[in-house]
Amino acid sequence: MRFDESYSGKIFIMSRATYEEADAVIYGMPMDWTVSFRPGSRFGPARIREASLGLEEYSPYADKHLEEVAYFDAGDIPLPFGNAARSLDMVEEYVDTLIKDDKFPLGLGGEHLLSWPIFKAMYKKYPDLAIIHIDAHADLREEYEGEVLSHSTPIRKACGLIGPSNVYSFGIRSGMREEFAYAKESGMHLFKYDVVEPLKQVLPQLAGRPVYVTIDIDVLDPAYAPGTGTAEAGGITSKELLEAQKLISESDLQIVGADLVEVAPAYDQSERTAIAASKFVREMLLGWVHKKQK
Fold first, then answer.
1. Could you tell me the CA-to-CA distances from 287 to 95, 126, 251, 276 in Å, in that order?
2. Residue closest to 44 by CA, chosen among 88, 123, 104, 107
3. How many angstroms separate the CA atoms of 187 and 57, rounded?
4. Per-residue pLDDT reduced to its tens digit, 58-98
5. Whole-angstrom Cα distance, residue 186 to residue 182?
6. How many domains does the chain have?
7. 9: pLDDT confidence band, cut at 50, 70 and 90?
8. For residues 132 and 247, is the Cβ–Cβ distance under 8 A?
9. Which residues, if any, are the signal sequence (predicted)?
10. What helix, strand, coil percent values describe the chain, rounded to 5?
11. Cα torsion for 124, 85, 116, 104, to the nearest 10°?
């Protein structure tokens, strides 16, 4: 069932007709209540879906067609505008339902704080959970200007939940001195600037473990993804992120869920960010959903 049965907007290309027949469920999280620079990521899920209509259903990276994966686009969770705490509770409650129904949760943001309630829901099911975090920013702050519910805090919260040694961050090129010091001292795994080569080192260590993957679109250089709220120069290319996704697909991990966040369409007249994001979502569906079905 979709959140709004009268929904007439776009859904992700080749979404199945019913929730019941799906192995994976795409859901939108249209929230940007805590962003620290430019708002607008609440419009990301809708634009990613619209951009997906221009995709080829076949992926040469995965050598698979979207018809081979049963997924359902549930639309956007109706989050209450401006109420971050209640919005996070609603996301956690919905992901709890997906896990109970044995669905692979694939979330579209929205700001990165939205990953925090998902981490909590996944950890209830998988106490040995590991997190792969691909991002420009460390997101290891305890608060931002006194606000503990901030899009700069989800990975620090994750470290407190599952233990720093179970958190793996890639592509990081921005953060406070204190964030990098915490990463070094706590025992979490933070890899600066690059994604592909560090992943090659780490993936064998995670073999067989349940892993949740969160991708912030701003890991890409602004040349490839200008449509994001907190762009950072010096990022990776779209090709590198696709290679990273393929590495994860081909690894011996149990991928239990994923999200892609921080697409803010207002800052990208070319729509290259949403177009790229929709392709990354396609590769998640084709490469990761089957891992849950082992």
1. 21, 21, 10, 16
2. 107
3. 41
4. 999 999 999 999 999 999 999 999 999 999 999 999 999 99
5. 6
6. 1
7. low
8. no
9. none
10. 40, 20, 40
11. 60
The CATH number of the domain holding residue 185 is 3.40.800.10
pTM: 0.95
pLDDT of 291 > 60? The answer is no
**Residue 256 placed within a domain:** yes
Cα–Cα–Cα angle for 230, 33, 154, rounded to 5 degrees = 65
What pLDDT, on a 0 to 100 scale, did the predictor assign at position 294?
38
238-250 helix and 272-292 helix, angle to the nearest 10 degrees: 0
Is residue 13 a part of any domain in this protein? no
Interacting residues of 244 by C-beta distance below 8 A, sequence separation 6+: 134, 170, 195, 196, 199
Q: Across the strands, what pairs with 254?
A: 210
Q: Mean of the pLDDT values across residues 156-184?
A: 97
Q: How far apart (Å, rounded) are the C-alpha atoms in residues 280 and 248?
A: 13
Phi, psi at residue 278, to the nearest 5°?
Answer: -65, -35
Q: What is the span of the domain harbouring residue 276?
A: 24-292
Structure tokens at 104: 């692979």
Which three-class secondary structure state does DSSP give residue 231? coil
Write down the residue that tokens 């992943």 correspond to: 199
In a domain, 9, yes or no: no
User: Which residues 6+ apart lie within 8 Å of 54 measured at CB?
Assistant: 275, 278
pLDDT of residue 33: 87
Give the per-residue pLDDT at 292. 42
Alpha helices for the chain (secondary structure H): 44-52, 84-100, 115-125, 154-162, 177-186, 196-202, 238-250, 272-292
Residue 7 counted as domain residue: no
pLDDT at 147: 77
Residue 209 in contact with residue 166, Cβ under 8 Å?
no
Look at the block and give the residue holding tokens 């990301």: 44
CB 46 within 8 A of CB 52: no
pLDDT, tens digit, for every residue of 100-111? Answer: 999 999 999 999
